[in-house]
Amino acid sequence: MQVPRISASSYSNTAPLVWSFLYGQNHGKVEIILDTAPARSAELLAHDRVDAALVPVIAYQQIDGLRLVPDVCVGAKERVRSVCLITKGKDLENVRSVALDVSSKTSVALTKIIFREFLGFEPVFKSAEPDIDTMLADADCALLIGDPALSIADCGLKKRDAATREEEARKQESKKAKIRNPQSANRNPEVRAPHSALRVFDLAQTWRKYTGLGFVFAMWMSKKDRVDIDFAAARDEGLAHIAEIVSNYESEIPLSRDELKTYLSGNISYEPDESMRQGMELYFKLAQKNGLLAKNKPLEFADQTDENR
């Protein structure tokens, strides 16, 4: 019997969904392909090179014959933290150019919906590599997603090098020790650059501001009518091993262990609720209305074997 092939991005927010296949009970039961760009998994699925893939939700409307795997997703009920619009101090209403991290087509389309539908104007959009300094050198707003967005501490404060942080913290403490915040003692030290004008707008939070709904960024999908892999059980196993996942990523992402744990277990939702499902349907509707989708087909879900239901 041929081993199923699946694909997903290697971002930290997908780790709870793939942990079981890499290290847990499903290890060896599938062949898994990981890539830094979520859009790459959509390409593999479109060309029938994998049996299922965790892909940006907009791919459902763009690739013929796809079915959604129910009850598992990467989404957010309120604040996502890892999908952000960042400006050099401007409100979004004053933005005239946006550098787009094109790693996820869902987030690019969401950005365009926010400007066209909610803010009522069209800035100049430019494709760019996910480097915030380069992006903001060429535009007054940048879309950044995934772990590159998390590398901007708390979605907005740029991490300074350790020596600079330590020196500035020492000077600040000597001037006025009483301003120290005891609640932040266990967090990585962060210092806002003097007169820094960075403004950060969380895309899930912005979406909720205008719609009152949650948002689904990615789901497992397949071209098969029936999917025999229990992705929900794999998710549950991954969520039970958040501590190990944090250990795997803490050297790569400049957040404290507690912050990274909160991000994975609090900010990210791995099971869509009714608000998130409604949000996905509205997203598809607005994407078609704004010329970002040629069609808006009804949601169809893959069947699962009885033991997976």
Major sheet: size, sense and barrel closure?
Answer: 5 strands, mixed
User: What fraction of the residues are assigned to beta strands by DSSP?
Assistant: 15-25%
How many DSSP-defined strands? Answer: 14
| Domain module tally | 2
Q: Would you tell me the overall average pLDDT?
A: 85
Helical residue percent band: 25-40%
Describe this structure in words.
With 309 residues, the protein is α/β, with parallel strands linked by helices. The chain has two domains: 5-79 and 212-308, 3-Layer(aba) Sandwich (D-Maltodextrin-Binding Protein, domain 2), CATH 3.40.190.10; 83-202, Periplasmic binding protein-like II (D-Maltodextrin-Binding Protein, domain 2, 3-Layer(aba) Sandwich), CATH 3.40.190. The chain is 37% helix and 21% strand. The chain is built from twelve helices and 14 strands. The chain has helices at 15-22, 38-46, 59-62, 105-119, 132-138, 146-150, 162-175, 203-211, 231-239, 242-249, 257-267, 274-289, and strands spanning 5-9, 31-35, 52-56, 67-76, 83-87, 97-101, 124-128, 141-145, 152-153, 157-158, 199-202, 215-222, 226-227, 303-304. Strands 2-1-3-12-4 form a five-stranded mixed β-sheet. Strands 7-6-8-5-11 form a five-stranded mixed β-sheet, with helices on both faces. Helix 4 links the parallel strand 6 and strand 7 (124-128). Helix 4 (105-119) crosses helix 8 (203-211) and helix 10 (242-249) crosses helix 11 (257-267). It is globular and about 55 Å long.
